[in-house]
Amino acid sequence: MELVIYYITNDMYFLLQKLFLVQLSIRDRVREPLPDSINAYEKFSESIRNAISKNFSVEAIFIFVTIVLLFVFAVVFFEVYRSNKKKQGLVDLAWKKFDARAEVLKLNQGTINLLKEIVGDSGLQDPSTIIKSPHVFEKSLEAYYDIRKIKSLPDSKLASIRNLRKMIGFSPLSKDIAIISTRQFEVGEKCAVQIPESGPATHKGMCLIKSMDERYWSITSISGPQVPAKTWILVNIIRSGDAEYNFRTQVQKDADGEFILAHTNKLNRAQQRNWVRIDVSIPVEVTQIIGNGIGDIFSGKIIDMSGGGFGMALPVKLHKDSRLLLNFELPGHGAINDLSVKVVRVAGQYNNDPLRTVHSVAFDGDVHLIQEQIIQYVFEKQRQNALALQT
Predict the structure, then answer these.
(1) Local structure of 300: helix, strand or coil
(2) Nearest Cα to 197, choosing from 62, 379, 64?
(3) End position of a domain, from candidates 56, 77, 92
(4) Cβ(114)–Cβ(160) under 8 Å?
(5) CB of 165 within 8 A of CB of 292?
(6) Element (H or E) spanning 308, and its range?
């Protein structure tokens, strides 16, 4: 203990010594007279050394250390208290924002209590964000379901949560907002499905989302053998005005003309200006449309394909915005006739061939049925390419 006091007082000695030298330096700069400054400094140093050399009793040392520790604890306690008070102030402000938003939406007390329950279980720091952001809402809901075990929750509560999305404006979801959970899709949306996820496909085709609730969702079934429970499948959904979504999920049950599926929040999203594109080599007959009449007819080749359009190598160089009609054979889907497209970009030569120019075209007009076939074909080719890479 005496050794501790010695080091503390010794440090104080050197500190005071430095302070005294600084004082001398300052006075020297302003050119003040320093009478007997050296003698004064020596007397000061001697007094400090005498204080250090004194022998303190154990009781005095104990009291001194106790005072120091109490002071340190008091400072720490004050800082913790101040920090917690600041955090509590921010939380109170967030709850005031939550209450204000709930009042604007005219939520009843039961709905507010349900939201607060979800916030509490999810550990959300700013409760107001759960009714401002659909992404925060879905992520908080996932945490809530993990803690509460969704299978054990009563149907009435799950129905209330389903209705809650509509009350706070998150269903139907705006096309400007990306989907992060299958719970956000709407009944009636179309999807391309391939079963199983890997290996030879037993089912593939276009389906409709038939039902949607918090535990499961379902799609119309595809003709084929019975699909065992827990089978992994691939799903592709094009959300018009938003993006293309690809994901895998599990079949829970195959019954009554529908596949009952598990929900997932692991979605791969490709914006429509950046569609998933595959390389192909498909002969195409191209008819140029000029005004209301038909212009030149020539042959070319589709060199890449996506859900939004094609890349084509043509024997002519067309202008941007040129309108065309395409006729070609889509492998596995039959003939595609009079598909209306528009040139959106004219690139350079194809494979350094001066006689062929690359054109990018986008679908034009009401071509949803043909577009669905093309999307399904792209989806199938993606899967085949992925399997080829694995082998």
Answers:
(1) strand
(2) 379
(3) 56
(4) yes
(5) no
(6) none
The verdict on residue 298 lying in a domain is yes
Question: In terms of domains, do 296 and 240 share one?
Answer: no
Convert the pLDDT of each residue in 206-265 to its tens digit: 899 999 999 999 999 988 899 999 999 999 998 877 888 999 999 999 988 899 999 999
**Whole domain around residue 43: which residue ranges?**
2-56
Contacts with 158 (C-beta within 8 Å, 6 or more apart), sequence order: 150, 213, 214, 215
**Which one of 245, 274, 303 terminates a domain?**
274
Output the average pLDDT for the chain.
83
Strand partners, 202: none
Separation CA 185–CA 166 (nearest Å): 13
Q: What is the pLDDT of residues 79-120, one digit of tens each?
A: 887 877 777 777 778 888 888 888 888 999 999 999 999 999
**Amino acid code (one letter) for 141:** L
Q: Are 371 and 379 in contact (CB under 8 A)?
A: no
What whole-number distance in Å separates Cα of residue 191 and Cα of residue 239?
9
Name the percent of the chain in helix, strand, coil, to the closest 5. 45, 30, 25
Q: Are residues 293 and 379 in the same domain?
A: yes
Residue 98 belongs to some domain of the structure: no
Count of domains observed in the chain: 3
Q: DSSP 3-state assignment of 332?
A: coil
DSSP states along 123-165: T-S-GGGGGT-HHHHHHHHHHHHHHHTGGGS-HHHHHHHHHHH
* 109-122 and 58-105 helices, crossing angle to 10°: 140
